[in-house]
UniProtKB/TrEMBL annotation, chain A:
Sorted UniProt keywords: Cell membrane, Membrane, Transmembrane, Transmembrane helix, Transport
Origin organism lineage: Bacteria, Bacillati, Actinomycetota, Actinomycetes, Kitasatosporales
Primary residence: membrane
Protein name: Carbohydrate ABC transporter permease
Family note: Belongs to the binding-protein-dependent transport system permease family.
Gene3D superfamilies linked to this entry: MetI-like
Pfam families: BPD_transp_1 (PF00528)
Region (Disordered): 1-28
Residue intervals of the ABC transmembrane type-1 domain: 92-306
Residue ranges of the TM segments: 37-63, 96-118, 125-146, 177-198, 235-257, 283-305
UniProtKB/TrEMBL annotation, chain B:
Protein name, per record: Carbohydrate ABC transporter permease
Pfam families: BPD_transp_1
Keyword terms: Cell membrane, Membrane, Transmembrane, Transmembrane helix, Transport
Keyword Cell membrane tagged: yes
Subcellular location: Cell membrane
ABC transmembrane type-1 domain span: 67-258
Residues spanning the membrane: 7-28, 66-92, 104-126, 138-158, 179-201, 239-258
InterPro entries in UniProt: MetI-like, MetI-like_sf
Organism the protein comes from: Streptomyces pathocidini
Family assignment from sequence similarity: Belongs to the binding-protein-dependent transport system permease family.
Membrane topology recorded in Swiss-Prot or TrEMBL: Multi-pass membrane protein
SUPFAM superfamilies according to UniProt: MetI-like
């Protein structure tokens, strides 16, 4: 691909027709451009099935709807209930706690594994092929597999639970234990993905920087602190934001692993949205919770666009 | 330059290896033993005897059909995503139309939408379109929420195509459509693979859209089938683990045959 893009014969062609001369540096534009027709299907499709629902969430949060028939206008009733509900505030707190805990646990591990597996040594290559294995399983499969592993009667939790203070091994039946389990499962599932991001970024750090530091007598720790970490700054931001926004919407893991239990101990906002909507058929109230999630998620994601390479894409016409 | 081995990192990497492998080993080990052996033995004991009975149980309870449904959803999602995203990416990079610029902005914002939070209006829309309880109902929102990333990754790779190439083709008398077919499509083959794999995995592993948009047995997809097994098989953990592993088998085959592409597809989010 690189070879073809550098086709030298195109040079004279470009010089041939500088007629308009407004911007002499730019080539004259005689190429026919694709019209709106090329983007219309995607734009329409996205508008109907993604943008529409996002607006719809906000609209439905002011409606009353049981899933059948037509939604009816309900004023601010849902929002009053939302703001006045103790369960919602508890779930919000728990969502933020879970988000924070998942970030704190996952970031150092993914960073370490990513940087380590970026090395070209043979053993590292082999091990990282194994490290990425959890990526092959769906959230549903992982949650069900771990549920069996955490089973207090027949699973591994019976033997391993006592080591971390759960003598009966019933982590999933304990208020804090259940949250701990979710953090554990989420870490096991998502660390490989974030490690992958760090691995790619770490491989892009020029080796010459490390060589120079080595000549100056920098040790391994110094090189990590003053070269690797600053060079990975953008990746840390991207990965963290993906992690944070992702944790706001964990749903399958909680539904399958704890089903919100024990006794509401793992009720987080997306889980409540599902149960309000599709178990209690209070679609309006569910939409209110969803609106809160969209606002929270979108404002956090906009930080990705701002701090990561996404926003820069506009200006990298030449490619790097 | 000789390097001193990093013992600390080596040690920790072995710890993480155990963390990754132990659960996988337990799942594999349980899936190949009889239920009675699993109940009699401790969780960590090596299987007393290997059996294929669990596989038979899982397949005879309809898991094969679930996999077929999932495969249908996956194929149609990938095809529809690429059919929409490829021309869109071409227009975003090359077109001067305001719709292209505006759409690009919307797609950028679209990356930020958490799909899970829109299930209620999506449910409303699908019931109004009278598509409830069809596989099409799963494909449509899956494609819609995968579009922003697909378009951005494809546009990113098209930006690297030299302008001279477009002009050379134009001199030969090619219109936009011919340029699209003869230049754009061949040049972004690599990112098409990335987008295809990423979209495919999303559809393969999808849970929430099938959960709220379908209900009948015949349309059950693999992820919901697994969940159903949990209640159906009760404490028959070996059968459940067999289903869990079976659901990942096609992805594992892909991983072994085309690891580079799969990893590129998985990293699609962070890659560009």
């Amino acid at each position: 691909m690189t070879l073809t893009t550098k086709a030298p014969s195109a040079g004279p062609v470009r010089r041939g027709g500088g007629v308009r001369g407004v911007r002499p540096a730019a080539a004259p534009d005689r190429t026919p451009r694709p019209g709106s027709l090329y983007i219309l299907p995607a734009a329409l499709f996205f508008a109907v099935f993604a943008v529409g629902p996002v607006i719809g969430v906000g609209v439905l949060s002011f409606m009353e709807w049981n899933g059948l028939g037509d939604p009816r206008f309900a004023g601010t009733a849902n929002w009053e209930r939302f703001l006045g509900s103790g369960a919602i505030w508890d779930a919000t707190g728990r969502t933020l706690l879970l988000t924070g805990a998942c970030w704190v646990v996952q970031t150092p591990i993914s960073l370490a594994i990513g940087v380590w597996s970026a090395g070209r040594q043979r053993n590292r290559a082999v091990l990282s092929a194994v490290y990425f294995l959890p990526l092959l399983l769906s959230s549903a499969a992982i949650a069900l597999g771990w549920k069996a592993i955490l089973d207090p009667n027949f699973g591994a939790a019976k033997a391993l639970g006592p080591l971390i203070g759960y003598s009966d091994g019933d982590l999933l039946g304990d208020t804090q234990g259940a949250l701990l389990c979710i953090v554990m499962v989420v870490t096991w599932q998502f660390v490989p993905f974030h490690a992958l991001l760090y691995q790619a970024a770490a491989r892009n750090i020029p080796a010459s920087i490390y060589d120079a530091a080595l000549i100056d007598g920098a040790g391994r720790a110094t090189a990590f602190r003053y070269i690797t970490l600053p060079q990975l700054r953008n990746t840390i931001i991207t990965s963290s934001t993906l992690m944070i926004v992702g944790s706001l919407t964990y749903f399958e893991t909680i539904l399958l692993l704890t089903d919100g239990g024990p006794g509401g101990a793992t009720h987080v906002l997306p889980f409540l949205m599902y149960t309000e909507g599709f178990r209690s058929y209070e679609m309006g109230f569910a939409a209110t919770i969803a609106t809160a999630l969209v606002v929270l998620g979108t404002s956090l994601s906009l930080l990705i666009v701002r701090f990561s390479g996404f926003a820069k894409m506009r200006s990298t016409l030449e490619g790097i | 330059m000789t390097r001193r081995p990093n013992w600390v990192a080596g040690g920790l990497s072995c710890v993480w290896l155990a963390v990754v492998l132990l659960p996988l080993w337990l799942m594999v080990s349980w899936s190949v033993q009889l239920r009675q052996d699993y109940l009699d033995q401790g969780p960590f004991d090596f299987p007393r005897a290997f059996t294929a009975k669990n596989l038979g149980d899982v397949l005879s309870s309809g898991f094969g059909d679930y996999l077929v449904n999932t495969a249908i959803v996956t194929v149609f999602s990938v095809v529809l995503t690429l059919a929409l995203a490829l021309p869109a990416a071409y227009a975003i990079v090359r077109s001067r139309a305001w719709l292209a610029t505006a759409s690009f902005r919307v797609f950028l914002l679209g990356l930020a939408i958490p799909a899970q939070a829109t299930i209620i209006p999506v449910y409303w829309l699908i019931t109004r379109l009278e598509l409830y309880d069809t596989l099409t109902a799963i494909v449509l929102p899956t494609v819609a929420f995968g579009l922003p990333l697909a378009v951005l990754v494809l546009a990113g790779s098209l930006r690297d195509v030299s302008r001279d190439l477009y002009e050379a083709m134009t001199l030969d008398g090619a219109g936009p459509f011919l340029v699209f077919v003869k230049l754009v499509l061949p040049l972004c083959r690599a990112s098409v693979t990335t987008v295809g794999i990423y979209t495919g995995l999303n559809a393969w592993n999808g849970f929430l859209f099938p959960l709220i948009l379908t209900q009948s047995d015949e349309l059950r997809v693999m992820t919901l089938g697994l969940w159903n097994f949990q209640s159906e098989f009760g404490v028959n953990t070996p059968a459940l683990m067999t289903g869990v592993l079976l659901s990942a088998l096609p992805v594992l085959v892909l991983y072994i045959l085309a690891r580079r592409w799969l990893v590129a597809g998985l990293a699609g989010v962070g890659g560009k």
